[in-house]
Write a structure and sequence with these properties.
- The protein is α/β, with parallel strands linked by helices.
- It has one domain: FAD/NAD(P)-binding domain.
- The protein is 29% helix and 23% strand.
- It has a 5-stranded parallel sheet with strand order 5-2-1-9-10, with helices on one face.
- Strand 3 and strand 4 form a beta hairpin.
- The two termini are 25 Å apart.
Length: 184
């Protein structure tokens, strides 16, 4: 089974972890609980009339827990390196290997920089429409790829795009996570 490492527990990271784990990929989420969502209140998130940002994060964590994501709270990723067969993530409590990495660290672009990802002229991480960086199988999402466009729903979409692209690579054909009432 392929392994996905997600660095960051805001909307982008939680969304990516949901899509990959729900669809059969072993997913580890590293979350230091420093998401900007703790300072937010959502009135502009589709389908949510009004919710405190911390409540949103807690409910999203419960959702990924229900699918079995290996959630590592307070585990800070200090480095990501290519290994030839994937990635090694160094944390303050050891290292983890993965086939794919999704960086969802808000505007902190330091891991992308140390990994060797290309940057745009405006200083954001350069990604394609699937959120893949110039480093194969490494994805960047949310505020790190958008200059001053820091929005929860955009970040969640970026995480979903990264997750779906990884699933497309794994399945060998375009993958769609489309649930029907019979799935519920």
């Amino acid at each position: 089974m392929s392994k996905v490492a997600v660095v960051g527990g805001g909307p982008a990271g939680l969304s990516a972890a949901l899509f990959t784990e729900k669809n059969g990929l072993a997913t580890t989420l590293f979350d230091t609980d420093e998401t900007w969502m703790h300072k937010a209140h959502l009135f502009n998130y589709l389908g949510i009339e009004s919710v405190d940002g911390t409540t949103f994060v807690e409910e999203s964590r419960e959702q990924i827990d229900s699918f079995g994501v290996d959630k590592r709270m307070d585990a800070e990723v200090t480095a990501v390196t290519e290994t030839g067969t994937g990635f090694e993530l160094a944390t303050d409590s050891g290292s983890v290997d993965s086939d794919y990495v999704i960086l969802a660290t808000g505007a902190d672009r330091s891991l992308a920089e140390s990994l060797g990802c290309a940057f745009t002229d405006s200083g954001t991480v350069d990604v394609d429409v699937t959120m893949e960086t110039s480093v194969a199988n490494a994805y960047a999402t949310g505020a790190m790829v958008r200059k001053e466009e820091w929005q929860a729903i955009i970040s969640a979409g970026d995480g979903a795009a990264a997750g779906l692209n990884i699933l497309t690579k794994e399945k060998g054909e375009h993958f769609h996570d489309f649930d029907t009432p019979a799935d519920a």
